[in-house]
Design brief:
The chain is built from 20 helices and 4 strands. It has a two-stranded antiparallel sheet. A two-stranded antiparallel ribbon has the order 3-4. A hairpin with a 2-residue loop joins strand 1 and strand 2. The chain starts with 15 loop residues before the first helix and ends with a helix.
């Protein structure tokens, strides 16, 4: 078993079960690049400040970069006896370059070191997730631009309500994902602050230049309180909160994809490459990508709750409980990346059944409000027109017909003010095109909105 870097205080070796229980290497090994990048920047600063020699700093840099290359190529594998990625790399470095490697940890603690590594890793992953969300949003924008006049029913209570377009429907999710990207940008800005130099909790007596290390790492500044620098995991909770809201939006869209691809709706058809079948029923085509996305939403929620519960009762500053933050955060990141790639592919390849969408809009009395508005323009108060329109809908239901299929004399049984122009007034085309208000479904309003993105 490898000797612990902190073993000087102890007379007995760590129990093997405790060593296994305590070790974080199986999951924090993914941060080896960030750990090395932070250590290179730290060692160069130590030399610049005259704390170690430039010769030792150069040896440290060369040794660390060789370790990174060997891990990248598989030449170096992780030692299962190592306590964590930080100790593994430092021990390997010392084995390679001798006493110079023992000088690397001058002026820092694993407390501020791990806090830095986690932030750097989260930022790298967050930018990748930002790109994936952006690709999904761009996909929706492209589909929307091709469906400015694809009529469909809009729903309230899952009941057909008013006619909209498929472009208008998709733009609701375009807005949601836009807000998600904005939330992630803000989370990144609060994550991209360096805690290195906070030490274990009270900084250090060495004349560190914390700002130069942050600048070297491309970070926006340094933490202002050493206690908070090592104890803060708000940024991890914030990223997980963003992820939970994003997954909620993906889950809502998944629910509608599941509904709209069913035989009962037939609004869309999913591509074979993004569907699965049944081992028993040969006719089945299942929307598994959407269903798994909906299911994994609960998993991300669970990770967020785990983070909140882990942190809620911890006294300042570092406590070993915080090691658990990594697994929850890593699971959030892995889940998001695992969802977004196939989800975007599913959206890109789905077929839109325009005929079925329009038939549903025509058959659900979605133009009843427009009939009421038509009568308002004839001088009847809205509350009265609402009642007249409702009675006409009831009449249509009783006679198994639609408003557009009624004869003019049938309309006039309910109001003498209804004229031949009613048919144009309550056509799907008019119902949609007249809704020119900002945020409305008219092709003109939608084109302006989409071109402004």
């Amino acid at each position: 078993m490898a000797k612990k870097m902190w073993a000087g205080r102890f007379e007995k070796a760590t129990d093997e079960a405790v060593n296994d229980f305590n070790s974080s290497l199986p999951f924090d090994c993914r941060m080896y690049k960030q750990d090395i990048e932070g250590s290179v920047a730290h060692s160069q600063m130590l030399a610049k400040q005259g704390i170690i020699s430039q010769e030792d700093a150069d040896k440290i840099r060369e040794g660390l970069l060789s370790i990174m290359e060997d891990i990248d190529t598989g030449k170096l594998t992780f030692d299962s006896d190592a306590e964590d990625i930080h100790m593994f790399i430092e021990e390997e470095l010392t084995n390679r370059i001798g006493d110079a490697g023992k000088r690397l940890h001058t002026g820092r603690s694993r407390n501020d070191q791990v806090a830095l590594d986690q932030r750097l890793y989260a930022i790298d992953e967050a930018y990748e997730i930002m790109s994936l969300v952006g690709e999904l949003r761009d996909t929706l924008i492209d589909i929307a631009k091709d469906n400015l006049e694809t009529y469909m029913p809009g729903y309230t209570h899952l009941q057909r309500a008013q006619p909209i377009t498929f472009a208008h429907y998709l733009s609701a999710y375009i807005e949601m994902f836009g807000r998600d990207m904005s939330r992630l940008e803000e989370a990144i800005s609060r994550t991209n602050i360096s805690p290195l130099g906070s030490g274990a909790l009270a900084g250090t007596t060495y004349p560190l230049d914390r700002e130069s290390v942050a600048d070297e790492l491309g970070m926006d500044g340094v933490t202002k309180n050493s206690l908070d620098g090592v104890a803060d995991r708000d940024w991890a909770i914030e990223i997980s909160s963003f992820a939970s809201i994003l997954m909620m939006h993906l889950s809502r869209l998944s629910e509608e994809i599941i509904l709209y691809s069913s035989q009962e709706f037939k609004f869309i058809e999913l591509d074979d490459a993004y569907s699965t079948g049944s081992s028993m029923m040969p006719q089945k085509k299942n929307p598994d990508v959407a269903e798994l996305t909906r299911g994994k939403t609960g998993r991300v929620y669970g990770d967020l709750i785990s983070l909140l519960v882990i942190m809620k009762g911890l006294p300042l500053t570092y406590n070993k409980d915080m090691q658990e933050v990594q697994e929850a955060l890593f699971d959030v990141i892995d889940t998001l990346k695992g969802v977004l790639v196939p989800f975007t592919g599913m959206i890109k390849t789905m077929k839109i059944r325009k005929d079925n969408m329009e038939a549903a809009a025509l058959g659900g009395f979605t133009n009843a409000t427009d009939l009421a508005d038509y009568l308002v323009r004839k001088g009847i108060p809205f509350r009265s027109t609402h009642e007249i329109s409702g009675k006409l809908v009831h009449y249509c239901i009783e006679n198994n017909t639609s408003l557009l299929d009624l004869k003019l004399e049938e309309f006039k049984k309910f109001s003498d003010l209804i004229e031949e122009d009613v048919y144009d007034a309550i056509s799907l085309k008019t119902c949609v095109e007249k809704r020119l208000v900002t945020g409305g479904p008219s092709p003109e309003a939608m084109k302006e909105y989409l071109n402004g993105l």
